[in-house]
Design brief:
Strand content: 35-45%
Structural class: mainly beta
Distance between the termini: 28 Å
Number of strands: 13
Order of helices and strands: EEEEHEEEEEEEEEH
Number of helices: 2
């Protein structure tokens, strides 16, 4: 695994190294020790989630959890392609309110490590896109929060017209201009 720091403090693009032979390939996609050595992340993973989004142009998120269920994530596209987005909402972060975007596909052998206190979402760039989320805490409905994908404070330029989005995600109010972030 190779770790490349991203524009948000504590976030990394992870490049996997497949090992192949005439049968195919093998890739290690998680190693707690290697991730801890490269990111400082020490919490064990609690959940591995898999989403399938059928329509190109669909948006999911931007979701995060607040204390006591702050959540770090490792995101990987397994099939199809997606425009991945996350934003730093950490109150005292030097990269507060910065947005990072990446395009992922099921063929690129990459993932992204997103630290606690960042909202995450994506837009599918192809039909039947599959995304795997590895998270550091169990889902906690009371701690879940959402940022509106079209919030003008974030100015995210999704590459496609939105074809599908949940009513919940579409109707989230925009952040107040005096938003101070979340406490970590």
């Amino acid at each position: 695994m190779k770790f490349h720091p991203l524009e948000i403090d504590g976030a990394y693009l992870i490049e996997f190294t497949p090992h192949g032979d005439d049968r195919g390939s093998f890739t290690r996609v998680f190693c707690a020790d290697t991730i801890s050595q490269n990111t400082g992340f020490k919490s064990p993973l609690k959940n591995v989630n898999h989403s399938i989004t059928t329509s190109k142009g669909s948006i999911r998120g931007l979701r995060y959890q607040i204390a006591p269920a702050l959540e770090a994530k490792i995101i990987r596209c397994l099939k199809g392609s997606a425009y991945d987005v996350f934003v730093d909402l950490r109150q005292d972060s030097k990269t507060f309110m910065q947005v990072v975007t990446n395009e992922f596909s099921g063929d690129d052998n990459k993932a992204v490590f997103i630290p606690e206190g960042c909202a995450h979402g994506f837009q599918t760039l192809s039909n039947n896109t599959e995304i795997m989320y590895m998270t550091s805490v169990n889902y906690n409905k009371e701690c879940e929060r959402t940022v509106n994908y079209s919030d003008p404070l974030l100015n995210i330029n999704f590459p496609l017209e939105v074809s599908d989005i949940s009513e919940h995600d579409k109707n989230i109010p925009f952040l107040d201009k005096d938003f101070k972030g979340i406490k970590i």
